[in-house]
Design goal:
12% strand, disordered C terminus, alpha+beta, disordered N terminus
Length: 498
């Protein structure tokens, strides 16, 4: 189809949310299937999908359902302003007409400075509502295509993946004597991505010049600073846009592809890994979440130091470099923090065995304590108690849900396999599978000191002490002043979690 051909001339009416969802999901499934079947395929005529009413409707739902819907861009318009003003359908028709006539032009993002835990400030770029809708439509079209190329070692800002998956894989490999850890962070990743290198990686899959021009227009839109001046964006993609995480993953996939190639060609089988260790060579694995990543190494510290230099060489063509302050080599016995978790190998109490434990980091605990303290201080006595309880409930539930797979104590240990590919429950604290398997596609398990959980994540009833299957956490205790001898106590049987 030529670029002058009419766009979606057969579309009649504006679809409902349910019809739009089904239409978008069907098309995304097709795009992903085509991309996975042919790794070298370049997609043309994607601009029609960006302008499609179903994609624009789904894009609006994503924007309106986000908690940032109340945050305006440079035009000071919010989602509520659009809804109460011209109306959603009229707004989307106007956006579609601008896209079809090729008159749409992104405007600069509004810069907002938010504090970081280190005391520094992070720059966020807030697009307008119109730009957010178009970016969301672009993401709906591009994401299923590039998801077929992304490697399993990447977990950040991807569908059906989360931080707990990355922690589970780190725990899996460190439990298999991958003792040295290169803990790395990319310095100002969203601000330093080279536009030319990023567009080259986009062109490897997208041949539609209209889509490429639209993406480049967002990259070059500029920033309205806090002092009121407009600055051009020579590099980077503003952090805060809907499309920015996907573009960052596309740029950082150069690192994933390199280490995935090494693992597949040089360390993919147990014989290859044994041969490398026999010749004194290290085996290693990359686990990345957005711009934070770790490389677990089975070898010596010198091998991890060498990987640090190799990573810098791989990232250099994308205009990126490692942060010297946040990049270091640590031993698993010393522990390290990653994604709010503290991961460390320690000796189990009462035995000579060591296990890898995950627990909330000191910073994460201090952060939730500070939030609770701020909302329960004397200055908040004038607030409605119902509001305070509801707010604290949301904060504590969110924190507890994020760290629900952490286990800070020293539990009894036994491991069983889970359901293989696609399993999203039962992430491990102790694993018994070979070091060649990945936690995302292999056997994953964890050590607990309580009763087993069901497949749906709910906790089952503890076993009766008289049955001989009670754990240390659920073992019955004698009542009264007399404490029975060791021989009279129920036997300790480790309880697995599925």
């Amino acid at each position: 189809m030529s670029e002058d051909a009419p766009v979606n001339t057969g579309a009649t009416g504006w679809p409902s949310d349910a019809r739009a969802f089904l239409a978008v999901r069907r098309m995304q499934t097709k795009l992903h299937g085509w991309a996975a079947a042919d790794r070298g395929r370049r997609f043309d005529d994607l601009y029609n999908l960006v302008c499609d009413p179903a994609f624009l409707t789904m894009a609006w739902e994503r924007v309106a359902g986000n908690k940032g819907a109340r945050t305006p861009g440079v035009d000071r318009a919010t989602v509520a302003h659009v809804t109460s003003g011209m109306g959603v359908e009229a707004f989307l028709r106007q956006v579609r007409d601008e896209l079809k006539s090729r008159t749409f032009q992104p405007v600069p993002v509004r810069q907002v400075m938010i504090p970081k835990a280190s005391g520094k400030l992070r720059k966020l770029g807030i697009p307008t509502v119109t730009d957010r809708v178009v970016q969301a439509a672009l993401k709906l079209v591009l994401e299923p295509i590039f998801e077929a190329d992304f490697q399993p070692c990447s977990y950040g800002f991807r569908p059906n993946r989360r931080a707990a998956d990355a922690i589970a894989e780190i725990h899996h490999f460190t439990s298999k004597r991958y003792e040295w850890v290169l803990e790395a962070d990319i310095e100002a990743c969203f601000d330093m991505i080279d536009h030319t290198a990023l567009m080259d990686r986009l062109r490897a899959r997208v041949s539609d010049k209209r889509v490429l021009a639209l993406v480049k227009a967002f990259l070059k839109a500029g920033v309205l600073t806090t002092v009121g001046t407009t600055e051009g964006t020579v590099t980077g993609t503003p952090q805060g846009g809907i499309l920015s995480p996907l573009l960052a993953n596309i740029a950082l996939s150069v690192l994933d592809d390199e280490f995935a190639r090494r693992w597949t060609q040089e360390m993919g089988t147990a014989n290859q890994r044994n041969r490398r260790r026999y010749h004194g060579e290290a085996t290693y694995r990359l686990i990345r979440y957005a711009d934070d990543f770790v490389i677990v190494v089975k070898g010596e510290r010198a091998d991890a130091d060498q990987l640090r230099e190799e990573v810098a060489v791989v990232l250099a063509p994308m205009g990126l470099r490692l942060s010297p302050d946040k990049t270091r080599v640590v031993h698993i016995d010393d522990g390290f923090d990653f994604l709010g978790f503290h991961i460390r190998r320690m000796r189990k109490r009462g035995s000579h065995k060591s296990f890898v434990y995950t627990k909330p980091s000191t910073k994460a605990i201090a952060s939730i304590k500070a939030r609770v303290k701020a909302m329960t201080y004397r200055a908040t006595l004038h607030r409605d108690p119902g509001y305070l309880m509801a707010y604290l409930g949301r904060v504590l539930r969110g924190w507890a849900n994020y760290f629900r797979h952490a286990w800070p104590n020293e539990p009894s240990t036994r491991s069983i396999p889970t359901r293989g590919n696609g399993s999203r429950r039962g992430y491990g604290r102790s694993t018994v599978v070979s070091d060649g398997q990945s936690s995302g596609a292999g056997t994953v398990c964890r050590a607990v000191g309580g009763s087993p959980t069901t497949g749906s994540g709910s906790r089952a009833q503890p076993a009766s002490p008289s049955s001989g299957t009670a754990t240390a956490a659920t073992r019955s205790r004698p009542r009264g002043p007399h404490r029975p001898s060791q021989a009279d106590r129920p036997p300790h049987v480790e309880s697995p979690v599925r």
